[in-house]
Amino acid sequence: xxxxxxxGLLSVTWGSVVMWLIALTLIYLAITKEYEPLLLLPIGFGxxxxxxxxxxxxxxxxxxxxxxxxxxxEWEVIPPLIFLGLGAHTDFGPLLSQPRLIFLGAAAQGxxxxxxxxxxxxxxxxxxxxxxxxxxxxxxxxxxxLAAQLAPHLLGACAxxxxxxxxxxxxxxxxxxxxxxxxxxxxxxxKKARTVTTREKVIFPLAxxxxxxxxxxxxxxxxxxxxxGNLFRESKVVERLRDTTQNALMNIVTIFLxxxxxxxxxxxxxxxxxxxxxxxxxxxxxxxSTACGLLLAKLMNLFxxxxxxxxxxxxxxxxxPMAARVVHKVGAEANKKNYLxxxxxxxxxxxxxxxxxxxxIFLTMLR
Amino acid sequence: MAEEVLAPLAGKVLSLAVEVGATVEEDEEVLVLEAMxxxxxxxxPCDGQVTAITVKVGDQVEEDDPLATIK
Lengths: 367, 71
What we know:
The structure holds 2 protein chains of 2 kinds. Chain A is mostly helical. Helix content of chain A is 74%, strand content 0%. Chain A is globular. Chain B is mostly beta strands. Chain B has a single domain (3-70), classed as CATH 2.40.50.100. Chain B has strands at residues 3-6, 11-16, 23-24, 29-35, 38-43, 48-53, 60-61, 66-70.
C-alpha cells in the first residue's frame, strides 16, 4: 500500500490532464507549425512536467526547475541576458536613418496603456493590469520581466500570450492594417533613407543608455544590457563577446527561460477564468497597439512632405522582426515593387525600446 | 537605353530567374533576394534584353548594388 501512495498516477487530477493537453498542443504547434519553436517547445515541456504529480520539480527551495525559475527569472537575471543577446543581434541602422519613425514605435505602445486601464476596470489589480497591458508590446522577455516583479502568479499565462501573439502576428495584423489604410496608402513607396555612419552606430547605444536610464531608471536592467550587447556589435573590437552573447549565451538562457516559464503554469495557476481574460485583453492590447501605430503614421502624413507608408506604423509593436516582415508583405501586395522591410525595421526597433520604457514606467509607479 | 536593376535592400541572392540574353518585360521577375529570412522578389524596371548579370546565387549584396543590366 505504501507503494501505491507513492504512485504518481493516482494523484492525477482533471486539471493536470487539461494542462498536459495544453502542453502537448504547444509542443505540437512548435514542431509542426514552427510557431516560435525555440520558446514554445521548452515552455510546453515545462508545463507538462510541472503538472506531473509528486515530482517536487517546482517545490520552493527544493525543486530543480524551481531553482531555475527562482535564480533565473525571480532574480531578474535571464530576461536582461536575453536583451544582451538581442542587442548584439540588432542593427539600429534602420532606426537611425529615419529618426522620425521612432514616434511610431512610441505610438504603438498606446495599446499597452489603454489595456492597463481596461484590465483594471475589469477588476484586476493595478499590478496585474500592468502585466496584462504589456502583452500589447508583444515582447516576451519584457513581459516576463515585468510579470516576475508585479504579478508572478500571472507570469506563465502572460508569457504564453505574448509569445503566441508574436507567432500570430501574420494573422492578427494584416486585417487591421487593411481596415485602417487605403490601397493607395499601402502602395506608397517611401523615399530612400540616408546612410548611417559607423560613428553614429557606436554613439547610439551609449547615448540611448544615458538618456533612457536618466529618464526612466527602472528600465535600466533591460536597457543597459540591450545597449551593451549593441555596443559589443557596433564597436567591432570584441567580436568574441558579440558572438557568445548573440549565440551561445542566448541559447543557454533560452533553455532555462522557456522551461521555467512553462513550469509556472500549474493547473491551479492557469485553469482560471482570469486567464481567459488575460488572453482576450492581451489580444486587444496588441490590436490597439497596431492601430495606434498605423493611425499616427497617417497623422504624420498630414504634416510631412515625404509621405510615410502608414503600414510601417504597424511595425511599432515590438515583435521583431515578424511585424516588419508582415508590413513588407502587405506593402508588396499593394505594389509589388514596394520594399518596406528596412523602413519597417525602424519603428519595429523603436517599439522594443518603447515597450521596455513602458515596463519601466509601470515599475516606477507600482513597485 | 540601358537600365540597371538595383538591389532594393541588402540580402543574399537566392535564385536567378533570367539568363544573359533573355528578353524581359517590365515587372517580370529577375531574381530573388533573401533578407531577414524572407524572400523578396526583384522585378525588371523596364522592357528589354538582359545584357549582364553581375551577381550569382549565394552572393551577399548591399542596398543599391547593381544586380543586372537590361537594355
